[in-house]
Every structure is written in structure tokens, then in C-alpha cells.
Amino acid sequence: MSKQTQSLVPLPLPDNVTQVHAQLLQWYEAEQRNLPWRTTSDPYAILVSEIMLQQTQVDRVLPKYQQFLAAFPTLADLAKAPTAEVISVWVPLGYNTRAVRLQSIARQVIAEYNGRIPDTIDELLKLKGIGRYTAGAIACFAYHKQVATVDTNIRRVLHRIFLGLEVGSRQTEQPINDAQMLLLAEQVLPEGEAYNWNQALMDLGATICTSNNPECTRCPLQNTCQAYTEMSQYSLFPSGTVFRQLKKVAEKKSSYQSQPFTSTNRYFRGRIIDLLRTLSIGQRMPLAELGPRIKTEYSTDDAAWLQQIVTGLARDGLLDYTEEGVRLP
DNA sequence: AAGTCGGGGCC
DNA sequence: GGCCCAGACTT
């Protein structure tokens, strides 16, 4: 049996799952965060929120979510807008290709789905920019499908509740893979409560069961949580120190950053987009002018370097590059 | 499996 | 300063 096949064998269903359902759903009913994408039934608005929330914290998304929907109130508005405008509104959320892909999704839905965002995971996965998490989130949160989905919060919370500490425990010396975690999420999905359950897991992960500094004393699942039980057994008092120490033991640290961020391609890509969004519509900037504007002590020796970055941005659909210069697409 | 892609907030 | 974040895509 291959390792991959073996790893997909379902784990035994935890015996505390019914109690966990009741505790977490009750906690969510009382303590849930008031988030605007939870009070809309517009699949488009939920799509916008889910793309924005990829690798971006809720507090940073909140204002931009409102601004974006004010600028592009409907899917059709987004589809027909100039891409340059979409990219400009997106700043400074980061991962700017998300803006290009979001508009691409809107245009594809208009052209191929009669303007209705798909409601199944399989169809959603066909749209570039929507992976398994976002597909599940849209199916569940926009259409109330009873599906499991796994993001970084849900992965951490489910692991701690049902499997124990992510690192350092005897039971789970290696973190389980994505497919295994999705299977677990599907096994413990409470009947008919997918929406509240998935939202509740993310709320708990974002506010109490955080990565490095969980507040177990405030947790509604303290008496049923496997990780909390392990910490008690090992006489580890739940604290940020414990989790940071465990992570260090696991040698998970990706080691040294060979260069400062302000000398990375990432940094200069951001600088270029931020500069181009200040130009008037259609205006191009020659590379010879762009270089000194984004890099101090820019010299002609940097021309090849700059062209490489610009080519990469053009390939990602983030700018329009000709002999005359560059501009947003 | 490992790299790439942003940027702001928090410790 | 390092780590974190409602991930997805490419190689």
C-alpha cells in the first residue's frame, strides 16, 4: 500500500463529537463576530469577501470590502470595469493577482454561467483563483450547501479539538495532510449546521484558539479539547510560551531570510503597482523613468533587472508593457 | 514538494 | 524583527 493511500484511511470518529457540536454552536450563537458578509445573501458579495480573505486578516479586509462593493456593486459592474480600476481599488490588500482573477471570474460567470455564480464545489473549482477552501466556502456561505471546508483556522482548531497538539504530541508526531484533514472535517460536520459550524470554527480560531497565544481559559471546548487534555498531562500550562516552544522543538522555523524584504522582487512589484495607480487613465511610464522612481540609486545596470520584474507583472496580468512604457492594464 | 505572491499588525 | 493571516497557482 502506498503511503498516500494509507494516509487517506479515515481516522476513527471521535466519541466527543456530539458534545463538541453542542458546545461550539452554542458559543457561536452567543459570541459570533458581526461581519458584513454574514448578513448578506448576495453570492457576489460573498465571493468578493472570500477572495479578499485569502491570506488576509478580517480587520484589514473590512474597510476594503465596503469600498470595493461601493465601486463595483454587482458582478456585472465588476465584469465591465477597466482592470486598472479594479487593481487600484485593491491596493493595499496585497497579492494583487487576486484582483485580476476576481474580475476574470466575474467575466467568466457572465459569459459562461449566465451571470450566476456556481453553487457546487466542482463547478467553482473550474474558476481560476478559486481553490478547494474558497469553493467550499462559497457553496456553504452563499448557497447553504452542507459541505466541509478547511482554512488555516479550521485546520488548527479541528486538530487541537480532535487530534491534539499540532506538534510535540506522541499521538500526532507529524501534522496530517490536507486530504486527511478534509476527511476529518467532513466526518465531524454536524447535520444541517454546516454554515454555523464552519463560521464558528473560524471564529474560535481567530479569537480564542489562535496559533501562538490561545486563551484556553476562555474556550467553550476546554473540557472536551484533546490538545488541552495533553497539555494537562504533560503539565504544560496553556500559554503562548508553550506553543512557541513546541513549534521551535519541531524545527518548523523556515530559517533565515537571506535578504531584507525591501530588496525582494515582492517589494518592488508592490512599489510598481502602487506607483502606476497614481497615473492618469491610459498614461504610460517609460522604464527609464520608472526605475529611479521605485529604487534609489537606480542605474542603467538595473535595466535588465527591472525588465524582468515588469515582464513578470505583465505575465500576471497586472500591467500592460510596450516599448512606450508600462501602465495598468 | 517547494517557490512565488503583499502588506499590515502584533509580540 | 519574526510570525501571522477565511490560499492558490506554478514548476
Automatic annotation (TrEMBL):
Record-listed E.C. numbers: 3.2.2.31
A GO term for molecular function: 8-oxo-7,8-dihydroguanine DNA N-glycosylase activity
Pfam family membership, one: HHH
Keyword rRNA processing tagged: no
UniProt catalytic activity: Hydrolyzes free adenine bases from 7,8-dihydro-8-oxoguanine:adenine mismatched double-stranded DNA, leaving an apurinic site
Keywords carried by this UniProt record: DNA damage, DNA repair, Glycosidase, Hydrolase, Iron, Iron-sulfur, Metal-binding
Gene Ontology biological process terms, A to Z: base-excision repair; mismatch repair
Taxonomic superkingdom: Bacteria
Presence of the UniProt keyword Iron in the record: yes
Location of the HhH-GPD domain: 52-207
Cofactors named for this entry: [4Fe-4S] cluster
Family: Belongs to the Nth/MutY family.
Protein name as annotated: Adenine DNA glycosylase
Protein's organism: Reticulibacter mediterranei
